[in-house]
């Protein structure tokens, strides 16, 4: 190998090291985690997620705070639900419970469209992938005195909570299987699509992956006793989010409860148990400026030293 080819090889090797740093593995950032509503994280059981009893960092917002005059509002509660909440009691995990569980106790919402939400700071740019994960069980009517069945939803919204990118409805009354309800996706003002029938009291976990203006959905049925996956499958591939919005706009998780009766004092006796909620962003990190600049500087210095050496040997 000549001196000239050696010089070229060494410079390429050092430059390649700098490029290798630029091609760093994808990194995942947790934008929001409900932490299984764990008491060790600070969640207070037997209180609403929007109640001031909850630590401010964990507290959600809602459109139906408790009204001491009417006695209505703040119908959700953080509870340990035996047979649904994951982990042993000592672990501290809890669940967020919303809906007609309290109908027999005459604890009613103050509105027929109850909304809970938690906003966070999005970090996605460009081709980054944002993933929303939720684990839940919908319990069917357990009280024939309250025969109505209500709809619950997970709503993926903008940080300012002004628009929905994608809504996942859990709708009773249209399932073709016995003792079941229907999961359906809603984008913008479009009609519901991508329907699948699920069984009441089953435990499910959904993962919505968003990149740019598109999304995929996978769904798994979970064994409540050990969190093992019973079965999973892809429900949606390459569908479009609400027009004009991308994964980078996702900054609010909403949970909605819509009363089918149209009367706040007549809730259905079905209710929602949510075990966990998670939002993450995955993308290739930009290395610190000093990393690649140092690599290029090193390549330049090596080249300079070799050129001087070649020149000295040639004279």
Can you walk me through this structure?
With 315 residues, the chain is mainly beta. It folds into two domains: 3-19 and 289-314, no CATH class; 26-283, Jelly Rolls, CATH 2.60.120.200. It contains two helices and 15 strands. It has helices spanning 3-22, 289-314; strands spanning 27-33, 61-62, 77-79, 95-99, 113-119, 129-139, 151-158, 164-172, 180-186, 193-199, 203-211, 214-222, 229-240, 250-258, 271-283. Strands 1, 3, 4, 6, 11, 12, 13 and 15 form an eight-stranded antiparallel β-sheet that branches. A seven-stranded antiparallel β-sheet has the order 2-5-14-7-8-9-10, with no helix packed on it. A hairpin with a 5-residue loop joins β7 and β8. α1 packs antiparallel against α2 (289-314). The longest helix has 26 residues, at 289-314. The relative contact order is 0.22. The model is unreliable at 1-23 and 286-315 (pLDDT under 50).
Distance between the termini: 20 Å
Name the average pLDDT.
85
Largest sheet entry: 8 strands, antiparallel
Strand content: 35-45%
Shape: globular
Report the uncertain regions.
Answer: 1-23, 286-315
| Rg, Å, rounded | 26 Å
Order of helices and strands: HEEEEEEEEEEEEEEEH
> How many domain modules?
2
CATH topology of the largest domain: Jelly Rolls
CATH class categorisation of the largest domain? Mainly Beta
Separate helix tally: 2
Based on helices, strands and strand pairing, what is the structural class? mainly beta
Secondary structure layout:
Blueprint: H1 3-22, E1 27-33, E2 61-62, E3 77-79, E4 95-99, E5 113-119, E6 129-139, E7 151-158, E8 164-172, E9 180-186, E10 193-199, E11 203-211, E12 214-222, E13 229-240, E14 250-258, E15 271-283, H2 289-314
Antiparallel strand pairs: 1-15, 2-5, 3-4, 4-15, 5-14, 6-11, 6-15, 7-8, 7-14, 8-9, 9-10, 11-12, 12-13
Helix pairs in contact: 1-2
């Amino acid at each position: 190998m000549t001196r000239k080819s050696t010089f070229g090889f060494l410079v390429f090797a050092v430059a390649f090291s700098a490029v290798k740093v630029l091609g760093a593995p994808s990194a995942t950032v947790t934008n929001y985690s409900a932490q299984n509503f764990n008491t060790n994280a600070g969640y207070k059981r037997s209180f609403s997620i929007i109640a001031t009893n909850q630590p401010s960092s964990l507290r959600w917002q809602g459109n139906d705070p408790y009204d001491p005059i009417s006695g209505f509002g703040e119908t959700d509660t953080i509870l340990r639900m035996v047979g649904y909440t994951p982990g042993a009691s000592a672990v501290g995990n809890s669940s967020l419970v919303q809906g007609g569980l309290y109908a027999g106790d005459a604890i009613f919402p103050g509105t027929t469209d109850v909304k809970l939400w938690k906003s966070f700071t999005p970090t996605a740019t460009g081709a980054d992938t944002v993933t929303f994960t939720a684990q839940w069980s919908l319990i069917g009517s357990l009280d024939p005195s309250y025969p109505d069945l209500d709809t619950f939803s997970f709503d993926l919204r903008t940080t300012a909570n002004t628009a929905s990118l994608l809504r996942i409805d859990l709708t009773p009354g249209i399932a073709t299987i016995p003792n079941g309800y229907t999961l359906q996706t809603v984008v913008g003002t479009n009609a519901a699509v991508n329907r699948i029938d699920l069984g009441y009291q089953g435990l499910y976990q959904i993962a919505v992956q968003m990149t740019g203006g598109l999304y995929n959905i996978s769904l798994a049925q979970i064994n409540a006793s050990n969190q093992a996956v019973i079965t999973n499958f892809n429900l949606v591939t390459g569908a479009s989010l609400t027009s004009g919005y991308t994964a980078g706009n996702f900054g609010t998780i909403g949970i909605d409860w819509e009363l089918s009766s149209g009367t706040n004092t007549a809730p259905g006796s079905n209710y929602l148990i949510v075990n966990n909620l998670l939002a993450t962003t995955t993308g290739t990190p930009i290395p610190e400026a000093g990393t690649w600049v140092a690599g290029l500087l090193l390549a330049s210095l090596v080249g300079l030293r070799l050129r001087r050496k070649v020149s000295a040997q040639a004279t």
